[in-house]
Amino acid sequence: MRHDGTLRRRAVVAALLREPGDLLVVTGLGAPSYDAAAAGERPMNFYLWGAMGGAAMVGLGLALAQPSRRVLVLTGDGGMLMGMGSLATIAAAEAPNLAIAVLDNARYGETGSQRSHTGLTTDLAAVAAGCGWFATATARDMTEVERLHARLRCEALFAVIRIAADEEPRHLPPRDGAYLTDRFRQAIGVVRN
Amino acid sequence: MAQQPWQAQVYAALRSARVTIMGYVPDAGHTHLIEAAHADPDMRAVVLTTEEEGIALAAGAWLGGQRAALLMQSSGVGNCINMLSLPVNCRMPFLTLVTMRGEWAEFNPWQVPMGTATPGVLTAAGVHVRRADQPDDVAEIVAASAALAFDSTVPVAVLLSQRLIGAKAFVK
After folding, report:
1. In terms of residue numbers, what domain contains A64?
2. How many CB atoms lie within 10 A of CB A88?
3. Which of A32, A180, B21, B113 is most exposed by smallest CB count within 10 Å?
4. Which residues on chain A are in Cβ contact (under 8 Å) with B65?
């Protein structure tokens, strides 16, 4: 599979997270976390700095715990490949308020831009469909990204966005997990549990 | 009145601890809990493809103000190690019930290495480890472990011994 990503990742994430309202955002480690922070640091963003492969499942737990709110997971192709089984788990769990957007540069950007499977043979949208996701999409231009802005906030959608492999300047969000956890819970009104 | 079997007591202890989401990788020793979770309209049972998914699931549940638990077998503990950085680093509770293999009349030698390593691996990863060997003690140990996990926001594993569960029979 030849990878055809040309989109600028910061422009993509800025478009997806424009007017975030009370959207709950979980980001996978590395560049997706930096992209979300660059689009606007906010307590309702929960950034993973590790736990690779776990972003989608954090999103599922959050979506099940907060069924009246929308949850968006933003992760890279490497993180989604590592947590590929969670696509089956999430499809089977049927959480209508959870969507996933994969920023797919076909690279392990954090470790030196080595090629990933999505630049070789793997189509993650097809994997998701095979796991039972009814709604999947692949975006290759900004018009398609703009359509995702609405769809990711109302559908149980799995979207792959083909981005360019170019690195952006790092925009580092807070990385103290306890701080991120406490402020997130406070922001959505979890008093105790 | 006959005492409830310990499996039913354990489920009641989890409900009393306000656990509402139960992730699991199936294991024969967890059969009762899995069936009870699916039958309970106030419990969300989530079947996982691999155990570390359950740690991330529990983290998300906590972010959203609910309590989750993970059911797995000792062989699955090895799949969890890096994901345990999530509750440890984020100062989140985590509660798992681990059915032990490889320690008591084990027929399958492939279960022995991870069964032997389980308490040490969990401890090294920052998880508090408790162990239940006697039917009369299990529910109390689970209740106390849930209190430790959710009230003191730390990761806790309860090992359910293979003697307690009953060694798997491979002969028909």
Report:
1. 9-187
2. 19
3. B113
4. 65-66, 185, 188, 190, 193
